[in-house]
Amino acid sequence: MSKEKKYRIGTYLILIPAILFLFPKVHAQHESKTINDSWKFYQGECKAAASTTYDDSAWNSIHLPHTWNTDAYTEKKYYQGTGWYRRTLTLPQNWQTKQVFLKLDAASKAAAIYMNGRKIGEHNGGYTACTFDITPFCSFDAPNSLAIHVDNARQDIPPISADFTFFGGIYRDVWLTAVPKQHFHLTNYGSEGIFISTPQVSEEKGTILIRGEIKNDAEQKASLELEHIIYNPDGSIAQTQKQSIQIKGGELYSFRTETAPILSPRLWTPEAPHLYRIESILRDKKTKAILDHSNHHTGFRWFSFDGKTGFSLNGKPYKLRGICRHQDQKPIGVALTDEMHRRDMKLMKEMGANFIRISHYPQDDALLEMCDKLGMLAWEEIPIIDIVPDTPGYAENCENNLREMIRQHYNHPSIITWGYMNEILLVTQRRYKKEEELKPVLERTLSLANRLEKVLKEEDSTRVSTMAFHGSNSYNEVGLGNITDIVGWNLYQGWYGGDLTGFERFLTEQHKKHPSHPMIVSEYGAGSDKRLHSLQPHAFDFSIEYQQKYLEHYLPVLEETPYICGGTHWNFIDFSSALRDESMPRINNKGLVYSDRSPKDVYYYYKAAWRQDIPVLHIASRDWTHRSGVQHGKAPVPLPVKVYTNLPEVELFIDGKSLGKQKTENYTVTFQVPFSRKKHFISAQAENKESDQSISMIEDALHINFTPIPANLNETNLRNLELAVNVGSNCFYTSDESQLTWLPDQPYTESSWGYIGGESKNSQTQVENTHDGPLFQTLRNEIEGYCFDVPNGVYEVEFLFTDIFRENAATVYQLGRESGVESRENIFDIVINGESVEENFSPCRESGYFHALRKRYNITNFRNKIEIRFPVRNGKSFLNGIKLRKLY
Domains of the chain by range and CATH? Predict the structure, then answer.
């Protein structure tokens, strides 16, 4: 049931006064409401917190949804432990004759619930819901004390290892529901006790199967009537099914009803997501009073996966154009409101996606509701990731989480596949090198996979099963590749090692070896940082341009390879991964949108490729509106400006002057644009042929700020100039804080400026004491010197240092990428124009390894040149950045 339906109290408001008189309570038989307000929270352990007499007045006042892990955006070792939530409940007097239920939509990872000092129950699993009958624990004479103990450190509950943050807390809604003694079974693995499928479906006809359970919590038997009303997508009634039920006191009764064929059903597709509504009504047979009711949607669709021809929907070939989605948003973590989930789905749909991998765990009901209504096919999975531990209770918790996920989201026609393992050999293969150590882990992994596959098919025979593998053939060698109906491959060739063409080579090899096994590319992506831009982008420089280059290679392969069912880009957002360092510590920045959901330029590449129903024209420079470049004399500086479009030809203008027209290739046009002054107005135009008689002009425009940096420095152009160089890097870097752009490094040539000697090195380890981490993560190793040919005068010279030459544990999620950095202590002098300004200088002694250090000197130049040397005392010399400014 969607959340908007849960708010409906009294589906049937009988309008006839006489009937209202006969059945005065008919409108309030099933009541549900959130209890997200007025909570008290304490982070840590407090054994007395369950007691009704405990004084929580000193605790923090909070509102749900809530997480205690906003620290995950700043700390690698974020808090993993326990927390307590408390609040008071005053229950309506008219609930005394009813059954009262408490539902937690999600509490991570485990929750224990106490009512009036007594333990109601507990739930293991941080991403699925749980429902408890709290009737025996309720008081109607006095306020009730509700306490919930939450733990996000448990090692017997998945996930235990993963490339994302395990946020703790009650981060989804908490509900109270009151129903009569006879009602639909509400404690069925957190579901609502009604399950709907379409056993027969074609263009000609379709049937709907409705099954579920009714509970009689009264001591005496009851005579009931169960009615199902099927509504067409336009709201008219398609048909009605009724049955009489005799149910004993305390009995749990199972029902199963299949409708008569619905002729020429309106099929559900992402392009036309037609939904049929099923209203289930439980009545007292004698009085006709409504005891319980429920609303669900279903859709008529059928699908298939084929190893040779890919995916088909409703009998027609269909490419799955997908995206993966985590559920957090900086700085609030996973405590998202329903409208935030809905906003994400609208952004994906606007981009043209028709498929979502709900990764790596079940997500909010609001998300699934939008998948159904907007039209988005879905893969949903439980978070068994990296390794299967030898931990008592782990396998049982995995099985329960799988059953919960399937039962809670069974009624969503958007879901086509259930998953239960992701990159399960990733940590396994790295932790266990010896055969005798590895063998029992593999046996345990295979045993769990087979167990879960059996459970999945027991729970749902209408959908397919899947696992996602990282790019290693080991999965096939150990037997995991033969267990599920389809396999997903997480492939990053050209990012975590190798080159871009390794992507299609891997797929070709897998298809050749396993031609009958359907494949999805379940992950692919490259990181990007808005502060970094490159004219010569390469893997792991985190430039916006390399992410674009990477995706512009991958997407055509997915679209044009018929045996690939589709792909899901990793990830929709820049999301929280507390273990990561890289250019943006604590963030995995492979998103198509930023954490705040503003789209990156590359988002519009996908939109141009996937939205053939509307014209798309986007100047892909919103991520690079403040530019810089080296200017020779007064000549303009040519820099690329890219346009993403699905129109055949684009004309680009700078300050109203046409730069000509270019044909579109791979939804991309790139112009070399001459930049010269501080601010330019860039505009693009393209013709959109709407019909043979109608042509419209599509336009896009933006301002780009440009700061020229002279190649040859003189008295005039040095005024008010800060020449900042990102030493050892191919990237422009623009600081968020100062807006100063640091230029890519260049070799020294006479009458100009640049480095002498050395080679580029980089580290992806976080650099402390700075917000400009990428500046300090690249350097020139074994540098001999730096020269600026400048007129005489007084100058300020600033050096940036970070000693990265110490072995540091790399995250397992960087896969095969090695830093290539040796451990050593480096001691050298700094000599400027023959004068020593630092002797026996050791950056690591002065500030520590991986700590930012800035050194600034005022020097008087009498040589028409500033020549800097770095004589080595021990180890090697290095330099991370340099900045020059003329004072007088």
Answer: 31-179 (2.60.120.260), 194-298 (2.60.40.10), 378-601 (3.20.20.80), 615-708 (2.60.40.10), 711-887 (2.60.120.430)
